[in-house]
Specification:
7-stranded parallel sheet; about 10% strand; alpha/beta
Length: about 700
C-alpha cells in the first residue's frame, strides 16, 4: 500500500481552528434583544456540556445519539453568537452533527428564529424529524412551522379551473390531477411533498399552483381554505420557522418594495447549506424576465377570455400572436443554447429586433384586453400582470449600471433576460443592518478553502463575522481513497472524454456499480450515459443505470436506493444534498474540476473587477469557488463511520498545476493514489473487511 501516498508528501492532520472560546457556555439569555415572545429560561447548571456530553440530556433521551467534541464546540460557538447578537460563519465537516449543534442553542434561547436551508429535502427533514426530536428531548415549549414558496402548494382555485378547462397536456397529467383532487381533503398542508410519486417537474404542478401574479388574494372564492394562507398564518405565530433560501430572499425583496413581509420579525437567522446563499442572493438582488412567463400569460388569457368574455375577441388568435412573438426571440438566438452578455451582442443582432417586436405585440395585446377588464376580475388581473411583464422588459432594456451585468440565456424553448449584481455584499449588508439587531449564523460543510473564509465573507459582506471550522470526525485515511489516474490528458484535449471512459470502466467493474458519476456538463451526462449503456449490454452486467433527465431527481434517488448495483450519472443537482449511506454508494467519480464555464458573462464581469484591483481573478475567485463545489461532490462518498469508498477525480490538473495542491489539500484527509491496481484493490480490501 506504499503507492497510496506516492504522489505528494503526506501532510499531518491539520489542527482545528477555534477563534471562539472553547469553555462551555453556562448561560443563555436574551436580555439585549427585543423579543416577540418570552424566552425559555436556561439555568446555569444546565450547560451545553450536560446536554451534549456522554452522560448528558441527549444521550439519555436519544438512543442513536453519540457525543462528539466537534458538535459541542460548534454549539458553544453558536451560543456565543446568540449572546453577542453577532454573526458567525461556521464550517463543520460531514458527521459533525451540525444540525443539532445549532438547533439546541436556538431552541433554548427563545424568541423567534428562522432556519433557512438550500434544499427542500433538508427543509422537510428539519421540520418533520430534527426539530421535533430536539424539542422533545429538551422539553422546550416552542412551536415550529414550515413555510415554502407558493409554487409548492396546491391552489384550490387553479386546480378547479384546470379541471374545468381541461388544460392538461397528456395522459400522465390527467392521472396526476385526479390523484391530487382525490387526496386534497386528506393532506395536511397541500404541499407537493405530500404526493411523492408525482415528479417535482411534472407539468401538472404549473397548472394547479399559483404565482404571486395570478393569485386572487382575498377575492379568491377558496380564500378560507387556501394552503398558502394557512402556512403563512402558522409561520407568523410560530417560534421557529423553517424556510428555504429562495423564500427568504423573496421576502427581503418584498420588504424593499414596501409590501407586507411574509416572514415575521425574528431574533435569530440560521442559514444551513449556507454555501448556496451568495448565488441565491444574486438572483433576488438582480432582475429576471423570460419568454416563458409571456407564453404562460398568453395561455392564461386564452382560457380566461373564452370563459368570461368570449365575445370580446378571438382569444385563440390573441394567444397565438403573442406566443409567436415570444418564440421568435428564442429563434433569434440561434439553434444552440447559450449565454451572452449584452456587451457581446452587436447592435444589429436579430435578438434586438425580436425583442422590439415582442414589446410592440405586448402593447397591442394590452389595448385589446383593456376595454373588457371590468367584465371579469381575472381579466383585470391578467392585464396588470402583462403590464408588469412589459415594465420588466423595458427596465432590462434600459438598465445601465456599472454594478450590474446584463446577459441573455437561451434554453431549448425559452429565453431569459438577466441583470445580475457583480456583488451582493452591499445590498445584503444593508438588509442585515436595517432590521432590528439579531444574530446571524451561517453554516455548511463547505465554506472555506484550507480554513480560509475570505471568499465567502467578501461575497456577503460579512467582514465582522467570527469564523470557525471543524474537521469531520470520520477516519478518511482508513475509510476512503482519493484516486487520480495516471495518463489523463488535459480536459480540453479532444481525446479527454474517450480516455476518461477507459479509466472509469475498470473502477466500475471493481466496485460492481454502486457508484455516482458526477459530471460538470449535461453533455457529458448524455455521452457517458450512452457509452455505459452499451458496455452494460456488451458485458451483460447486472447493473442498474440511472441517467439524469430520465426521471425527476427525487425519483432517481429513490430508484438508486432500491436498485441492485446502481450507477447514477448526473450533473450539478446531484453534487450536493444527496445522502446515500452504506455499500450502495462505494465509488464517486468526478469527471473534471468544477470550474465555472469560461463563457459565463457574470463570471467574466466579476473577474474583470477583481483584476482591476490588481489581484489574480483566477486564484482569488475561480479556484476558491471550484474548491467549495468539489468539496460538495466529494462529500457524497463518506456519510457515516462505517462507510468505505473511493473518490476518483479524472482531472490531472489536481496534480500538475500549482493550484492543484491548494484544491486537494482542502478536501478531507483521504489516503491517495494514482495507481489503478491500488484503487481497484481497495474494494477487495473492503470486501474482506466486511466479512470479518
Amino acid at each position: 500500500m506504499l503507492a497510496i501516498n506516492k504522489w505528494m508528501q503526506w501532510s499531518p492532520h491539520r489542527p482545528l481552528i477555534h477563534p471562539m472560546h472553547k469553555t462551555p457556555t453556562t448561560a443563555l439569555n436574551s436580555d439585549t434583544l427585543t423579543t416577540p415572545t418570552t424566552p425559555i429560561t436556561f439555568e446555569q447548571s444546565h450547560n451545553l456540556t450536560q446536554i451534549f456530553g456522554a452522560d448528558g440530556t441527549l444521550a439519555h433521551r436519544l438512543p442513536f445519539f453519540n457525543p462528539r467534541p466537534e458538535q459541542l464546540e460548534m454549539a458553544q460557538a453558536v451560543t456565543q453568537a446568540l449572546n453577542n447578537t453577532s454573526c458567525a460563519v461556521l464550517e463543520a465537516g460531514t458527521g459533525t452533527g451540525k444540525t443539532f449543534a445549532y438547533l439546541v442553542p436556538t431552541l433554548l434561547w427563545g424568541g423567534k428564529a428562522i432556519i433557512s436551508t438550500g434544499t427542500k429535502t433538508l427543509q422537510d427533514q428539519l421540520f418533520e424529524r430534527d426539530l421535533p426530536t430536539i424539542r422533545d428531548a429538551l422539553g422546550a415549549p416552542v412551536t415550529i412551522a414550515l413555510l415554502k414558496g407558493r409554487a409548492n402548494y396546491v391552489c384550490h382555485y387553479h386546480l378547479d379551473r384546470t379541471l374545468m378547462n381541461g388544460r392538461l397536456m397528456g395522459r400522465d397529467d390527467a392521472a396526476h390531477i385526479k390523484r391530487i383532487r382525490k387526496d386534497l381533503n386528506h393532506v395536511k398542508r397541500g404541499d407537493k411533498a405530500e404526493w411523492p410519486d408525482i415528479p417535482d417537474d411534472a407539468l401538472v404542478w404549473q397548472q394547479v399552483t399559483s404565482t404571486r401574479e395570478n393569485c386572487l388574494g382575498s377575492d379568491c372564492p377558496n380564500h378560507k381554505e387556501c394552503f398558502v394562507m394557512s402556512a403563512r398564518k402558522e409561520a407568523q405565530s410560530a417560534d421557529v420557522i423553517v424556510v428555504n433560501h429562495h423564500l427568504f430572499f423573496a421576502d427581503v425583496m418584498l420588504r424593499e418594495e414596501g409590501i407586507a413581509e411574509l416572514l415575521p420579525a425574528v431574533n435569530t437567522v440560521v442559514f444551513d447549506e449556507a454555501h448556496q446563499v451568495p448565488e441565491v442572493a444574486s438572483i433576488f438582488f438582480g432582475q429576471q424576465c423570460s419568454t416563458a412567463q409571456i407564453i404562460d400569460w398568453a395561455r392564461d388569457i386564452q382560457a380566461e377570455g373564452i370563459t368570461h368574455v368570449r365575445d370580446a375577441a378571438d382569444w385563440r388568435e390573441v394567444k397565438d400572436v403573442l406566443e409567436r412573438a415570444a418564440k421568435d426571440v428564442r429563434i433569434a438566438c440561434g439553434e444552440s443554447n447559450g449565454r451572452w452578455s449584452v456587451a457581446q451582442l452587436p447592435d444589429n443582432s436579430p435578438i434586438w429586433d425580436a425583442l422590439d417586436k415582442l414589446q410592440t405585440t405586448i402593447n397591442d395585446t394590452l389595448k385589446i384586453i383593456e376595454p373588457v377588464c371590468e367584465r371579469a376580475e381575472t381579466i383585470e388581473q391578467l392585464s396588470t400582470r402583462l403590464e408588469q411583464l412589459s415594465e420588466q422588459l423595458t427596465q432590462w432594456r434600459e438598465l445601465h449600471s456599472d454594478e450590474m451585468v446584463r446577459w441573455i440565456e437561451a434554453f431549448s424553448h425559452t429565453v431569459r433576460l438577466n441583470a445580475t449584481p457583480l456583488s451582493v455584499a452591499e445590498p445584503f449588508t444593508r438588509q442585515r443592518e436595517s432590521d432590528h439587531p439579531r444574530s446571524w449564523i451561517f453554516t455548511s460543510a463547505t465554506l472555506s478553502v484550507r480554513n480560509d473564509f475570505t471568499l465567502f465573507k467578501e461575497q456577503l459582506g460579512l467582514h465582522d463575522a467570527h469564523t470557525a471550522t471543524w474537521e469531520s470526525p470520520f477516519d478518511f485515511a482508513k475509510q476512503s481513497l482519493l484516486y487520480v489516474p495516471n495518463g489523463l490528458p488535459e480536459p480540453w484535449d479532444k481525446n479527454f472524454g474517450n480516455i476518461v471512459l477507459q479509466k472509469i470502466f475498470p473502477m466500475l467493474r471493481a466496485s460492481n456499480g454502486r457508484a455516482f458519476l458526477l459530471c460538470t456538463t449535461l453533455a457529458a451526462v448524455k455521452r457517458y450515459g450512452a457509452w455505459l449503456t452499451e458496455q452494460i449490454d456488451k458485458y451483460d452486467l447486472d447493473w442498474t443505470l440511472l441517467i439524469q433527465g430520465e426521471s425527476s431527481r427525487t425519483e432517481l434517488l429513490n430508484q438508486y436506493r432500491e436498485a441492485k448495483n446502481p450507477v447514477l450519472i448526473g450533473s450539478q443537482s446531484f453534487w450536493e444534498g444527496v445522502d446515500v449511506r452504506g455499500e450502495a454508494l462505494s465509488l464517486v467519480i468526478i469527471d473534471k474540476l468544477p470550474f465555472a464555464p469560461p463563457d459565463d458573462p457574470v463570471l467574466a464581469a466579476r473577474l474583470r473587477v477583481i483584476e482591476a484591483r490588481g489581484e489574480n481573478g483566477f486564484m482569488a475567485y475561480q479556484v476558491p469557488q471550484a474548491v467549495i463545489n468539489l468539496k460538495q461532490g466529494a462529500g457524497r462518498l463518506i456519510r457515516s463511520e462505517t462507510d468505505r469508498g473511493v473518490l476518483m477525480i479524472c482531472d490531472s490538473r489536481l496534480i500538475t498545476k500549482r493550484y492543484g495542491g491548494r484544491i486537494w489539500q482542502s478536501l478531507p484527509p483521504f489516503a491517495r493514489t494514482r495507481e489503478e491496481s491500488v484503487a481497484c484493490g481497495f474494494f477487495e480490501d473492503s470486501f474482506e473487511a466486511g466479512k470479518t
